[in-house]
Design brief:
Largest sheet: 6 strands, mixed
Structural class: alpha+beta
Order of helices and strands: EEEEEHEHHHEEEEEEHH
CATH superfamily of the largest domain: Endonuclease/exonuclease/phosphatase
CATH architecture of the largest domain: 4-Layer Sandwich
Number of domains: 2
Shape: elongated
CATH class of the largest domain: Alpha Beta
CATH topology of the largest domain: Deoxyribonuclease I, Chain A
Number of helices: 6
Number of strands: 12
Strand order of the largest sheet: 3-4-5-6-10-7
Helix content: 10-25%
Strand content: 15-25%
Length: about 260
Amino acid sequence: MYTVSNIQDDGPQPVPHSIILVNSNILTDSYKQIHTETKLVTAISILTAWGPLDLYNIYNSPGMDSALVALGTWLAEHPPTTALLWLGNFNIHHPLWSGPAYPGQCQHSNTTLLIALLAYHNMECWLPVATPTYQLDIHHTWSTIDLICCSPEILPLLTSCNASPVACLHGADYLPIQTVVNTSVPCCSQTPKPNFHNTDLAKFHGTLVGQLQTPLQNVNQVPDCLSGLDTYITHLTNAIQVAISDAVPLTKPIPFTK
């Protein structure tokens, strides 16, 4: 499933600039959407084994601070009481995350508001300095404008945080950032289910016929009372279940199945 912020926009068809996809195996009562009232920031609160965690996905348009202003306003009106995780495309260069190799880009980026927000909420950058995340179409040079920032109390839970070239979508100019947090969330149990697509039809038919040929005691061929009908339906249901168990293979669930 996915969650999209509660958008308030004067345009005819406001389009969200950020989304959060939640694995369908995660129990729906273990997270809830945070309605930030902007199309630039999507957020959810997740209940993990470590504790609650508020996750914000942010898209800050180039040359603007719209998302940062919205984020700062929201957090000022709704002071966070749990650990924070900010991630997304900030479209801003600074030596703290871009490294010393891009002084020109850093000089032309206004990072005042972002630095102030990071300092005020005591956030730290997870992504290693100078990690390439975006490739410029014109010069085919790389820069770091996608960030992962978190509250210091969850830093010990960090397992890894790196850009992954092998997971990049074909034709994309951004590299995905894979971040692993050492905690867990409540998930649905994954039990094997019948794979009816691969049913052995001949075996199914033979088993079902054999089950239905078993005579029923104290029941006429055509049930003439409610108890007889109940017995007949139960027998038919059991026969079908035995045939399914005998002729239909089970699926092999994977972590991404619904």
